[in-house]
Write a structure and sequence with these properties.
With 235 residues, this protein is α+β, with helices and mostly antiparallel strands. It has helices at 59-172, 174-234, and strands spanning 2-13, 16-27, 32-33, 40-41, 50-53.
Length: 235
Amino acid sequence: MQNNKIHFKMYKSGKNWMVAGLMTTAVLAGLTLSNTNNDVVAHADTTPVAAQTTSTQPADVQQAQKAADDAHQAADKADQLKNNAKTDWDKKTTHQNNLDQAAADAKAKENSAKDAMDKALTHQNNLDNAAEDAKAKENSAKDAMDKALTHQNSLDNAAADAKAKADAAKDSDESNASQLMKDAAKAQKAADDFKPTLTAASQLYNDCMNKAIKAQKAADDYKPTLTAASQLYND
């Protein structure tokens, strides 16, 4: 008696699943008893298993194949999305690093500009203070010169008055004229002796005035530098 059965086995070839059908045939042999020699002979014949590949796939196998293909495509798409996400993240990270570096550079430049502005402001203040000090010295020297000039004028006037009195007494009172002439000579000498002091006061005033002018000019000339430093810091 023969019994034929087909078994299906799935295997993968590349990305595709294949199905192979295996047919087995079994032959059952009868036992023949020999009455002649009382020997028992048993015969068993086996038919080789034939492998047969079918190209027709059952519906459930096709569905499994489609599900496997869909899963593979989904996996590929997920990998692509993952790679794209990593690329985007790397770009964003690089851009953020560039922004952070630019911000750090800008902050460093800001600090440098502020230092320059502070130094310029300090220098401008020093120049302004020097100009004010020079102006104060100029004013003090001018006051001293004005006082010296007033005193010089007083001495000159006193000498002129004494000379006039001496000249007037010379014709009317000879005895008194001699003393008046001496007084006039003393007054003129005092006026002459004070002239170097007036000259020195005048020279001091001129020097202080020139220094004040130079100091003020230096302060004024530096103001554009301070303005430029302030503008650079603001920018």
